[in-house]
Design brief:
about 120 residues, Ubiquitin-like (UB roll), about 25% strand, alpha+beta
Amino acid sequence: RHGRQGLRSFSVSGRVREPGVKLAPAGITVRELIAEYCGGMQDGHDFYAYLPGGASGGILPAHMGDIPLDFDTLQPYGCFIGSAAVVVLSHRDSAVAAARNTMRFFRDESCGQCT
């Protein structure tokens, strides 16, 4: 998809109806992943932001949800796909709180190699 070939496993969590590990085309966008593989957003939740590569992959706003989830496409925005652990946030979540939680996680759980 979007010029990419093959399949990739995405571990999707957050405010989607059907979270879990999804086998989807490489290069899929988060919007496509949510709509086609995760049953859409949970009732009462609007797509707000996402972490494309888990805790260390950065946070992007929903208006950037049409970027293919791949290494070279996310890098210009300071993000990366990493483990492809996609976390979907809704308008009821806070990007600031998500960033704080991520920083707290790495403070407490990091093995020290990256810090």
